Amino acid sequence: MRLQKASSFALYAVLELAANPASQFSGVEIAQKYNISAHHLAKVLRDLGRAGIVDAVRGVGGGYRLAVNPKRLTLLDVIQVFEPVGPQSATSGDAELATGAGQALRMVLDELDEHALATFRSITISTMLKLIESRPWASAAHSPKAARRAASRR
User: Fold this and answer.
1) pLDDT means per 10 residues in the chain (154 residues)?
2) Could you give all domains of the chain from N- to C-terminal order, each with its CATH number?
3) pLDDT of amino acid 68
4) Burial of 61 (0-12, 13-18, 19+ CB in 10 A)
């Protein structure tokens, strides 16, 4: 599964702000750290602000900070600001529904979307920070699922 750029940029920004709650960061600082477009990130941060996820502090020494508790903020909360997650309703006029194969494929894809939705809903930003800290990708012995479980126990 791939996320839209805006969703990925939003997660980078939220994770950076959550990892350093006592600090404020400019959009440019975050963009430079993740090697992403500062202009695009500025739009993403504006949308996160409108959603109440980040606060913008103006003036000298200003920047962005996380406005919500990272233990309660889920990946789904962030991603849904930028793209729909979950089964996409097909209309009766969709050609894919005209055949049994199309209907079967839609059913399987909807089930996969439901699993993605449940996963995004179950993982908090705090859990992601623990996962980043534990660096399970550095060890080939860990599966992604085992790594998430280990991070959630901390």
Assistant:
1) 92 96 93 96 97 90 92 97 80 70 87 92 96 81 61 62
2) 1-83 (1.10.10.10)
3) 96
4) exposed
**Which residue in 123, 36, 34 sits closest to 71, CA to CA?**
123
Q: State residue 142's pLDDT score.
A: 53
Which residues are within 8 A (CB) of 26 and not within 5 positions of it... i.e. 6 or more apart?
62, 63, 64
Alpha helices in the chain, H assignment, sequence order: 5-19, 27-34, 38-50, 75-79, 100-122, 125-134, 144-153
In this structure, which amino acid lies at residue 136? P
Which tokens hold the place of 147? Answer: 């790594």
What is the distance between the alpha carbons of residues 126 and 94, in angstroms, rounded to a whole number?
40
CA distances from 106 to 3, 4, 21, 91, 122 (A): 20, 21, 42, 11, 24
Terminal CA-to-CA distance of the chain, rounded, Å? Answer: 27
